[in-house]
Amino acid sequence: MEEIHETAKAYYNNLTESQKDSAKQMFQSMDSNGDGSLSLSEYLEILSKKGYKLCSNPNFFKKIDRDGDGNLDFEEFLSLYYLIKSERLLFCDGHGCGAFLKGVYFTCVHCFQCEKNFDLCPSCFSGKNFLHNHAIFLDNFALLHFMAKGYSVRAF
């Protein structure tokens, strides 16, 4: 998660003032008691309401809570903000896995091209721990490379 924290901070530092205000407003809207931090209960309540079921659990909260004090300050919240705004809240679709995909993962090319997601952690992909109708998967970096070059995507 450290890389995600650093990435979130880098993006935030390069936002316009208006965009920074949007992040602050989102934080304040989640901070229902106005104490300047998000408790686990505030976090769970708002994420459940917004439909982020896979990350609305205490374990994911703990991953974002860098200092382990049981609350998210604004800087810790920026990781969540980044994950939501960049649509990086991805979880493994492997059979019974559900792991948060924080680094390299594999994507079904067909589903990606149809603006759907079927993503797998390296462990589920390697162990063939999934059922899916399509056969071509690429890791997220290879997929980006091939798309940027304008190549047709195919299996290795």
Major sheet details: 3 strands, antiparallel
- The CATH class of the largest domain turns out to be Mainly Alpha
* CATH H-level superfamily title of the largest domain: EF-hand
Find the CATH topology of the largest domain: Recoverin, domain 1
Integer average pLDDT: 93
Number of strands: 5
Description:
The chain is mainly α and 156 residues long. The chain has two domains: 2-85, Recoverin, domain 1, CATH 1.10.238; 90-156, no CATH class. Helices cover 49% and strands 8% of the residues. It has helices at 2-13, 17-30, 40-50, 58-64, 74-85, 109-113, 122-126, 140-149, and strands spanning 38-39, 71-72, 106-108, 119-120, 137-139. It has a three-stranded antiparallel β-sheet with strand order 4-3-5. Strands 1-2 form a two-stranded antiparallel ribbon. Helix 1 packs across helix 5. The two termini are 29 Å apart. The model has no long low-confidence stretch (mean pLDDT 93).
Layout of helices and strands:
Blueprint: H1 2-13, H2 17-30, E1 38-39, H3 40-50, H4 58-64, E2 71-72, H5 74-85, E3 106-108, H6 109-113, E4 119-120, H7 122-126, E5 137-139, H8 140-149
Antiparallel strand pairs: 1-2, 3-4, 3-5
Helix pairs in contact: 1-5, 2-5
Please provide a brief summary of the model:
This protein is mainly alpha-helical and 156 residues long.
Which short descriptors sum up this protein?
156 residues; mainly alpha; Recoverin, domain 1; three-stranded antiparallel β-sheet; 8 helices; 49% helix
